[in-house]
Structure formats: C-alpha cells, structure tokens
Amino acid sequence: MSGIMKVFLLLAVIVCITEAQRGCLCHRVRSQIRSKVKDIQIYPATTFCAKVEIVVTDRRGARFCLDPELAAVQRVMASIIKARTTARPAALTSSPDSTNTASL
C-alpha cells in the first residue's frame, strides 16, 4: 500500500472515531418531569458515550433527557426499577403425576 493511501486510511479512521464519540443522545438535560410519561429508557455508559443517559418519552411523543445526577431523578428511577423487579408471588400447584409448577 502506498504512503498516500495509508495517510487517507488513517484520516478515515480518525474521522470515524471522532464521530463515534459524539454518539451521546442527550446534549441537554432537564431536572424534572413536567408531563405524563409514556416510556423511559436508560442507556448505560459505553465507549461511544461516557455518561448514563435517561431518555423520557411523554404521552404526546416528545422525547427529552433527564439529568441522572440529580437526587430527585435518582429517587424516581429507583422506584421504577423496584416496581419492575418486584415480582408477584407465584402459586405452586401439583398433581400426583407431575412436578411442581408455578402459575401466575
């Protein structure tokens, strides 16, 4: 491979890496939720974006980001995660010819 081709290849790699680092979804964040929420998505930090991002979609379809560092946002997120991970107790049923099975 010629020297000029190597330089162009190196420049292309640098451009790709630079663009990938701009991969964060949230450029501005809000400190509170002002309307009814339809969906919340939590994006962990990655190699493309070094910060945790919380993207909220309201009932009208508008999307905005919340500041994950604020205590109020952390409390809301903790309550949502707790509600999702708390499972309902399952009732066990069995018959003489089968093993125990859980029914919800």
Automatic annotation (TrEMBL):
<protein>
    <recommendedName>
        <fullName>Chemokine interleukin-8-like domain-containing protein</fullName>
    </recommendedName>
</protein>
<feature type="region of interest" description="Disordered">
    <location>
        <begin position="85"/>
        <end position="104"/>
    </location>
</feature>
<keyword id="KW-0202">Cytokine</keyword>
<dbReference type="GO" id="GO:0006955">
    <property type="term" value="P:immune response"/>
</dbReference>
<dbReference type="GO" id="GO:0005615">
    <property type="term" value="C:extracellular space"/>
</dbReference>
<feature type="compositionally biased region" description="Polar residues">
    <location>
        <begin position="92"/>
        <end position="104"/>
    </location>
</feature>
<dbReference type="InterPro" id="IPR001811">
    <property type="entry name" value="Chemokine_IL8-like_dom"/>
</dbReference>
<dbReference type="InterPro" id="IPR036048">
    <property type="entry name" value="Interleukin_8-like_sf"/>
</dbReference>
<dbReference type="InterPro" id="IPR001089">
    <property type="entry name" value="Chemokine_CXC"/>
</dbReference>
<feature type="domain" description="Chemokine interleukin-8-like">
    <location>
        <begin position="21"/>
        <end position="80"/>
    </location>
</feature>
<dbReference type="GO" id="GO:0008009">
    <property type="term" value="F:chemokine activity"/>
</dbReference>
<feature type="signal peptide">
    <location>
        <begin position="1"/>
        <end position="20"/>
    </location>
</feature>
<dbReference type="Pfam" id="PF00048">
    <property type="entry name" value="IL8"/>
</dbReference>
<keyword id="KW-0732">Signal</keyword>
